[in-house]
Amino acid sequence: MRSERAATPCRLARVSEELFRCAAEACEHGTITGARVHPPELLDRLDAVATPEAQAWGWLLRAQHAALSRAGDGALEVPAHVLSTSTSRDVVRRGLPILARLALLAFDATRLERCCELHDLLRDESASDAAAIAATLARAWLRWLRAEPHEHAVDLGAIAAQARALGQPALVVEAQALRALDALAAGDLQAAAELGRRASRMARTEGIPESEVLANVALARVRRAQNRPHLSLRILGALLPHAPPAWHDWIHWEAVAAGLIRLDLPGSSSPAALLAATLRAIGSGVAADVGPCAERLLGAVQAIAPLRHDARRALTLLVPGYAEPDPDVDEWHRGTSVETPVGLAGIAFAPAPGRVEAGTCAHVVVAPGVAARRVAPLAVPMESASAEIDPRPATPPGQPRTDEGLAVLALAGRALETPAYFRAVYEYDYEPGAHATMLGMHVHRMRSRLGDAGTIAREAGALELVAARAMLLRDPRCGEPLAQQTLRLLARGGAVSARALATTLGVPLRTMQRVLAELVTDGDLARVQEGREVAYRVEDTTFSEPTRSQRFGPAGFSVE
Where are the alpha helices (DSSP H) in 285-354? Predict the structure, then answer.
């Protein structure tokens, strides 16, 4: 009897040792489906062992499962009693990077801060340097989420070098991706692009699935900031099938911000779904729906600095006066700049609800006694409720300067001397003897286009637009070129033939072929042989589709 009693603790120790070995093997696989014991059974057996070590292993397995499936990621708090032994603390320390990543992907700064505090609590001089780097990166992500000042921020370049020296490629890629996002937040677009490309190439070389997702989501955000939304959508659409569900909220946000406002999103409470709903409300032209949608959106992203920045700039562009002033956007509204504000090309030219094609041209709102302002194509339906769109046909081919001239005069808000006006529209100097007749015909066309909505006063060598009523005037200087329309369409739909593109965009096949040839030469498109027909798809010289990672869903986006 005494022998049996003496054997019991040893037997329990052997059972626990075998159980913990199974848990460790499951963690090494990166997914609990690789465990020797079926996951539910393994977790049940761990739960049945009332020791801190068993509870710690169970917590770590559930954290890994949440990282892959998003199931229960909000219930991963670490109970205090689990931290009561050095062995259990080692297990928990191993799972802290997973906990930090889940908090980041939920855009939850409070949870991420608790994770950082847990890093500090479990700091151990005997722990690996990799653990210290992971803790430092968690703090850096917290600063990024909160847009905290960078005066005392760590040198992420040095952190990347330390991780490289330790042979930790995943941490190297993470540090480089975060450097790209920090540079973007600081307004250094050139550095952000260089760092983003470097992180993407590193991730592709290492072939670590989650590192590929992280680096390329960061690169997609940089591409959008470069006003290259077609490249952003190309990256995001290729990543989506390979990214675990925990990543989908961030991927969806970037896709909507790149102009995919019809993205079919599950539920209605995620930031991406709220952004899409707000943009659709603006594009539908129902002003009464915009306020409630915008309030819900701003409330949801209030504590998420990068998303709050995106949302406010989008609202400032589309609904002037609704959000905080932005100098870059304000210059575009006033007409002092014709370049689409940084990062907003996708939203500005997104197709409004009920329209297949994107808006291709900005407009200018003109009204008696009110300063004119430029509006983005997506906002035109909403502006139409208070201003009349010229009912005449579009400007005939070969006469784009008629609309350009009206836009220049409207945004000037005053009489322009003839030389200054001529230079603004024709981009070369005015010579009365050579250009007087041409200018006279040009003014005649502008007056005809205005009809009874206004007129062009021409006195004392100056021109001025005088509005009789509110109206919208096209501004072709801020239009989406055919090449950009082509890239946008291909970024959403994959490889498409020249004939299909010409039909969709309503242009002659020869014109479409010429544009496609230029885009292939520039490296923006690649030719793909599909049977007997040549098709075209968006090409990014940096990004390559993940090939070795698990697929989590169908390819691409559902946009209808």
Answer: 287-301, 305-318, 327-334, 345-348
Residue 387 banded pLDDT, cuts 50, 70, 90: low
Q: Which residues pair with 375 in a beta bridge?
A: 363
What is 336-383 written as a DSSP string?
S--SPPTT-HHHHTPPPTT-SSPP-EEEEEEETTEEEEEE-GGGHHHH
**How far from chain centre, in Å, is Cα 378?**
18
Amino acid at 481: P
Closest CA to 555 of 221, 211, 234, 214: 234
Q: Are 468 and 387 in contact (CB under 8 A)?
A: no
103 CB-contact burial (10 Å; exposed 0-12 / middle 13-18 / buried 19+): buried
Cβ pair 288, 318 in contact under 8 A = no
Residues 100/120, Cβ–Cβ less than 8 Å: no
| CB contact at 8 A, 539 and 526 | yes
Please tell me the distance from the alpha carbon of residue 504 to that of residue 357, in angstroms, as a whole number: 8
pLDDT band at 548 (very low <50, low <70, confident <90, very high): low
Listed range (203-217, 220-234, 356-370) with the worst mean pLDDT? 356-370
Angle at 524 between CA 197 and CA 181, to 5 degrees: 25
Q: Is the Cβ–Cβ distance between 298 and 104 less than 8 Å?
A: no
Tokens 């990282």 sit on residue:
67
Estimate the share of the chain in helix, then strand, then coil, as percent rounded to the nearest 5. Answer: 60, 10, 30
β-pair type (471-479, 388-389): parallel
Residues 283 and 378 sit within 8 Å (Cβ to Cβ): yes
Nearest to 385 by CA among 477, 283, 466: 283
Contact 46, 78 (CB under 8 A): no
